[in-house]
Amino acid sequence: MSTISLNRILSNVKENGHKLTPQRRYIIEIMMKNNQEHWSTEEIYAEVKKVCPEIGIATVYRTVQMLEELNLLTKHHFSEGCSRYEFADETKNHNHHHIVCTKCGKVMEIQDTYFDELERHIQDDMNFNITNHTVTFYGICEDCKE
Ligand SMILES: [Zn+2]
Ligand SMILES: [Zn+2]
Ligand SMILES: [Zn+2]
Q1: CB–CB of 48/55 below 8 Å?
Q2: Where, in this chain's numbering, is Fe cation bound (predicted)?
Q3: Which CATH number goes with the domain that contains 133?
């Protein structure tokens, strides 16, 4: 659940000297609109193809790469050989965390508050100043448990 706005993304792309072609716009809009927030390039391609059948996967790759270079997208490696992207939340100083189902591949976000206590323990026990952390939990989701 990120705080992101379409206008900010679009103007950032233009301000950095990139052309905002209709295809790029479709890609950005679809990634933002759909509530599935952690996209693989293939999933973006399949979705954009519905509104823009002439688009090629190379365009999707290049657009994703451009957005990543502008730090608008965050890249995740949740499983071997598959990168997933989501828009970066500019209002947060670090990214939220995820739980990943190893059966169906579903990615869900978890709140950050769980880690406050853990950080305090580590700081105290190890005399270590924590400045950031990344956490991903792997397991079986509710739907796959049955
Ligand atoms: Zn699952
Ligand atoms: Zn996320
Ligand atoms: Zn955190």
Answers
A1: yes
A2: 133
A3: 3.30.1490.190
Pair (139, 112) in one structural domain? yes
Q: Distance from the CA of 138 to the center of ligand 2, in angstroms? A: 14
- Going by the annotation, the residues of the binding site for Fe cation are 133
Residue pair 5/87 in contact by the 8 Å Cβ criterion? no
| Structural domain span for residue 100 | 94-146
Of all ligands present, the nearest one to the C-alpha of 119 is 3
Q: Identify the three-state secondary structure at position 13.
A: helix
Distance 133 CA to ligand 3 centre (A): 6
- Over the stretch 6-39, which tens digit does the pLDDT of each residue have? 888 999 999 999 999 999 999 999 998 876 679 9
Q: What percent of the chain has pLDDT over 90?
A: 66
Q: What is the pLDDT of residues 38-76, one digit of tens each?
A: 999 999 999 999 999 999 999 999 999 999 999 999 999
